[in-house]
Automatic annotation (TrEMBL):
Upper classification of the organism: Bacteria, Bacillati, Bacillota, Bacilli, Bacillales
UniProt keyword annotations, A-Z: Membrane, Transmembrane, Transmembrane helix
Native source species: Lederbergia ruris
Record field: transmembrane: 6-21, 28-50, 65-87
Name of the protein in its database record: Uncharacterized protein
């Protein structure tokens, strides 16, 4: 389930950052939008899973495996920045 959420976050942030890049023609702003989308999606997913899992509340996030979602934020952002290098901007 974690990998599906990570894949969804990668897809949404890639589409969002490409749209920002095509409209604003600014790679820095596009990278920041990808980072922001990743933070929103993955932190909200972690919070929802944490609230629904009693074992995670008792033993913490380290024993539940939900920390993978938080650790995926910089990796997915880095992948987005690599993808943005191959997007051609038409003027």
């Amino acid at each position: 389930m974690n990998y599906m959420i990570i894949s969804f976050s990668l897809l949404v942030s890639t589409i969002g950052s490409i749209l920002v890049l095509k409209r604003k023609n600014n790679k820095l702003l596009s990278g920041l939008s990808a980072f922001g989308l990743n933070i929103i999606i993955l932190v909200v997913a972690t919070w929802i899973f944490y609230r629904g899992d009693d074992e995670a509340r008792v033993f913490g996030l380290g024993h539940s495996g939900y920390y993978i979602l938080i650790l995926a934020i910089p990796v997915i952002t880095w992948i987005n920045l690599l993808i943005l290098q191959f997007v051609k901007i038409r003027k």
